[in-house]
Specification:
Structural class of chain A: alpha/beta
Largest sheet of chain B: 6 strands, parallel
Largest sheet of chain A: 6 strands, parallel
Strand order of the largest sheet of chain B: 1-12-7-4-2-3
Helix content of chain A: 40-55%
Number of helices of chain B: 6
CATH superfamily of chain B: NagB/RpiA/CoA transferase-like
Radius of gyration of chain B: 17 Å
Shape of chain A: elongated
CATH class of chain B: Alpha Beta
Number of domains of chain A: 4
Number of domains of chain B: 1
Oligomer: heterodimer
CATH architecture of chain B: 3-Layer(aba) Sandwich
CATH topology of the largest domain in chain A: Rossmann fold
Strand content of chain A: 5-15%
Shape of chain B: globular
Largest interface: A-B, 82 and 66 residues
Number of helices of chain A: 37
Order of helices and strands of chain B: HEHHEHEEEEHEEHEEEE
């Protein structure tokens, strides 16, 4: 749960989480396992089509939430079920407490329900004097420990068998062996008694089928079946987002949910309950059955044009499983109650701004969650949108205002960068890195050497290096981005040199400025729009077929971000689409447009590892071109695990959360080091900055370069 | 009418992937003989590690002491099949019950049930369980033996959807999809079978027409 008041105390909690060695090892092992298991679970299936099916079915259902609610209610009532609707979590808890009182209940058994976690139902029922027992093994464990879940599917993933054995020793009053199979059987026996004694069972539901008034519940342990069968009263607490028209929609979700959650083709049990079933424990032989629907922000979400897609979530937990940050810190600090990327979004709507405001800043924008989501939710985008909303509601911190002011005026912005190049001289010590930074700037940045600003930016070098082809079948324009303009101009120069001898011309519009992604990352949407327009105008006159970008982050933002930012701009929406259509990444351009081939290169077969930038491999779905060019250049390709996992840079993220950035970088470099490669190449100057700085700090014997530099060096003269 | 052999084979493969035990029986007498044989081979619940041997709290341990005799539950067998199974059980000294399962929450050894349909793509059993006795049998037993006529095996979940929707349209209804034994991985992601429901699932393919 989120208790941190500000980003400073949130960072303190993150550092504590980082010091939990067991949790980190457990998460790390799981992250590695999950990757392979998920791929095997979906082998041979058309995953994009399945995702599109789920997204379409859920979107259609959420657009008629209240209609489906009315239909469900009518059908369930006909079958003897009482249906309630609660506006808030407290209201839902009160309804359930009232049912328990009216039914003369003493003991309650529960099966796993994230919705009941959301409303903190146990707190209310225990305060009212009921004995409440969670019967899902993981939920029982965390209930006994008085803590919340750290994963939506595996709530006790942060705990070791030793901790569980100690806990069960306390509960049974007998010393328990540290043996997982035996501990599970202890839980079976202890909980069986609770089932036998309970007079009320509380479950959640994965589906509420409107056309028959049926609840669908997915479980593995079988406790959900006992909870809904043995006690004389059954109450299901169900989010309004679980309403679907019919079984057909549910079956679509069942195809993907267990596969994405636990790599199972289907979970052990799927239970479909319609109406008041027979129950021998009931005086009239029929179960007393209630369904409590929970709104708590869901109707607001459903009506929101940007955020309604968050309601597609099927609670598989995959967005946490693949998140490089979750992997480091676990669920108690990476969510409030809902965990992982979707948790960052839902927390704002279900639990309010205060619980969400620190969380939403803790995102690398690496897109791993989006790629793993079986409902096709654009999670990184929604996280940024929540951040922007919170800034709009709360007012912006000084850094944001300053950044926005600077970025909106290119001359001012570039002037600041030029000044920085002069001011840094005393701290570079004659190296290309910033050394001995003044403390206020360097705090917690020791994990990587930061590069110095170049003496002469690329824009001042352009005239001297630009190509002069005799003829030009290809007309391209270069978008350098800030990093290559002001920090690594040699990378842009290297790319330019590859044009020589080719039937291709390159332009460099001088009015271009920052792509605007850093502004968006800080929640500054207006500034991001303003600079997008400046860039679109800057490239308008140069009559080019391609806009070449050597920065993966710029490229994905120019191509995917601009059309979205300007979609509702009557004057520039179309221009943004035209602009975006021309944007191309470096390796694809080198391979497909310049058609650089093995015959163009010479040099030793150096063992070379590749880092796949997030915004290239997931942002633009460019995965093969960098590898193709590496091989074309005659280098020996050294593959390694998790080539496409984030390096931890994330732009401003690494300044805001240096402790997380450092750990993610360390993991990356360990994987690279294991290959024995002496060269590491990547297609993004931001990644170069992070990886080179980290390698320098660790004194690793490896050279980190942009692939453009390597291709230029190896090009036959 | 038999389902195509490849569907049965696919079902078997998928069910075994989730640790189900599968076998074929030509007719009901053969299937019932298997049930008794399985019960005979099965030691009292403690050797299956269902937890009776564990150091439990006093109230939970008392519940285990309610188990006095090997017990088979057969809630939905026809009268004739139930009688035939009863004769076999009597010879072996097993108790055979078809109702009153709430009195056996401490555990029963084996539940034998019919199956309404099978889904080959996932090795899933479909049981319409309107009777509470049937539900409890499949939840409380340590070994669930499901009798699956090969003629009711379909390829995908969508093939059984019209039938299940029809059931749902005639409430009350409680339909279970069962795939493998009860399982958990909640402690250190280590797989453990039989956390609340059956520790073993046996599927008997009935091949008679």
């Amino acid at each position: 749960m989120q208790t941190a008041k500000d980003i400073k105390s949130y960072r303190h909690e993150l550092r504590q989480a980082l010091s939990n060695e067991f949790q980190r090892t457990a998460m790390d092992n799981f992250a590695v396992f999950y990757r392979g298991a998920r791929a095997r679970a979906f082998a041979g299936m058309d995953l994009p089509a399945l995702i599109a099916d789920v997204a379409a079915a859920k979107d259609a259902a959420m657009a008629r939430m209240d209609e489906l609610l009315a239909e469900f209610t009518a059908n369930a009532q006909k079958a003897g079920v009482t249906v309630h609707v609660a506006a808030t979590g407290d209201e839902a808890n009160a309804i359930i407490a009232d049912i328990a009182r009216a039914e003369g209940v003493k003991r309650i058994v529960k099966s796993k329900s994230m919705t009941a976690e959301e409303t903190l139902l146990n707190h209310r029922l225990e305060a009212d004097g009921y004995e409440v027992t969670e019967t899902d093994l993981g939920e029982w464990i965390i209930q006994l420990r008085h803590e919340g879940p750290t994963h939506m599917v595996m709530p006790a993933i942060h705990l070791s068998r030793y901790q569980v054995a100690d806990l069960f020793s306390d509960v049974t009053g007998r010393k328990q062996e540290v043996d997982i199979q035996k501990l599970v059987k202890v839980a079976r026996r202890e909980l069986r008694l609770k089932f036998a004694q309970a007079d009320m069972g509380i479950s959640g539901a994965n589906f509420a089928l409107a056309d028959t008034g049926t609840l669908g519940i997915i479980t593995n342990e079988g406790n959900g079946r006992l909870v809904t069968t043995l006690p004389r009263v059954h109450v299901a607490l169900v989010g309004l987002d679980k309403l679907v028209p019919s079984m057909d929609d549910a079956l679509k979700v069942i195809k993907v949910l267990p596969r994405n959650a636990t790599a199972q083709a289907i979970s052990s049990y799927v239970t479909w309950i319609t109406g008041q079933n027979a129950c021998a424990a009931s005086p009239d032989g029929k179960k007393s059955m209630h369904v409590v629907f929970l709104d708590n922000g869901r109707r607001r979400l459903a009506a929101d044009p940007v955020f309604s897609q968050a309601l597609r979530c099927v609670r598989c937990g995959a967005c946490a499983n693949v998140c490089p940050i979750y992997r480091q810190v676990g669920g108690h600090t990476y969510g409030h109650i809902y965990i992982g990327a979707v948790g960052l979004v839902l927390t704002y709507f279900y639990h309010g701004r205060d619980k969400a405001k620190n969380l939403v800043q803790n995102c690398l924008n690496c897109g791993a969650c989006k790629a793993a989501c079986v409902a096709g939710i654009d999670l990184p985008y929604l996280i940024k949108e929540v951040h922007a909303r919170i800034l709009a509601e709360e007012g912006r911190p000084f850094q944001n205002t300053a950044l926005s002011l600077a970025m909106r005026n290119r001359t001012v912005f570039h002037g600041m960068l030029r000044t920085a190049s002069l001011l840094q001289k005393p701290v570079t010590g004659g190296t290309p890195y910033l050394r001995h930074l003044p403390m206020f700037f360097a705090r917690d940045q020791e994990f990587r050497a930061l590069p110095a600003i170049a003496d002469k930016p690329f824009r001042d070098r352009w005239k001297a290096v630009k190509p002069h082809p005799q003829t030009s079948a290809v007309k391209a324009a270069l978008f350098s981005g800030c990093v290559q303009d002001f920090v690594y101009p040699e990378q842009a120069e290297a790319a330019v040199s590859l044009f020589h001898g080719k039937d291709a011309d390159l332009a460099y519009p001088m009015d271009q400025t920052c792509c605007g992604l850093p502004a968006l990352m800080m929640g500054e949407k207006k500034t991001a729009r303003d600079v997008a327009l400046q860039n679109i105008k800057a490239f308008d006159d140069c009559n080019c077929d391609y806009i070449l970008t050597l920065c993966a982050s710029c490229a994905s933002h120019l191509k995917k971000g601009y059309p979205r930012l300007l979609a509702d701009d009557p004057t520039y929406a179309e221009a943004a689409e035209r602009f975006a259509a021309k944007v191309i990444d470096f390796s694809t351009f080198a391979r497909d447009v310049l058609k650089l081939a093995p015959s163009d290169f010479a040099g030793p077969a150096t063992k070379t590892a590749l880092h796949a930038p997030c915004h290239l491999c997931r942002g633009l779905q460019v995965t093969e071109a960098p590898r193709d060019m590496l091989k074309a250049a005659g280098l020996e390709y050294a593959p390694y695990d998790e080539e496409d996992v984030c390096c931890g840079f994330g732009g401003t993220f690494s300044l805001k959360f240096p402790e997380l950035s450092a750990e993610i970088l360390k993991k990356k470099l360990q994987n690279v080091a294991a290959t024995g490669a002496s060269l590491l190449i990547t297609d993004c100057p931001g990644c170069v900055m992070q990886l080179r700085g980290g390698a320098d700090n660790l004194k690793m014997d490896i050279t980190v370069k942009h692939s453009a530099e390597v291709l230029a060096e190896r090009r036959k003269k | 009418m038999d389902a195509p052999a490849d569907l049965v084979e696919l079902f078997r493969t998928k069910a075994e992937l989730v640790s189900a035990v599968t076998l074929r029986a030509v007719d009901m007498p053969a299937a019932l003989a298997y049930v008794v044989e399985a019960c005979e081979k099965k030691d009292a619940c403690k050797l299956l590690l269902s937890g009776c041997e564990a150091d439990l709290s006093a109230p939970a341990a008392e519940m285990c002491e309610t188990i006095t005799q090997k017990t088979i539950a057969a809630p939905d067998l026809s009268d004739a099949d139930f009688a035939a199974l009863g004769t076999l059980c009597e010879q072996k000294g097993f108790r055979l019950i078809r109702d009153g399962l709430r009195n056996h929450l401490g555990g029963i050894d084996i539940a034998v049930t019919h199956t309404d349909a099978g889904i080959a793509e996932t090795g899933t059993l479909v049981l319409r369980s309107r009777s509470e006795e049937l539900r409890l049998a499949t939840m409380v037993a340590e070994v669930h033996i499901a009798l699956l006529p090969v003629s009711v095996i379909k390829a995908t979940s969508h093939d059984i959807e019209p039938m299940v929707r029809q059931w749902m349209a005639e409430p009350p209804d409680y339909t279970a999809f069962i795939t493998g034994a009860s399982r958990t991985a909640d402690i250190e992601r280590v797989l453990a079978l039989g956390v609340h429901g059956p520790l073993e699932l046996h599927i008997v393919f009935l091949t008679e027409a």
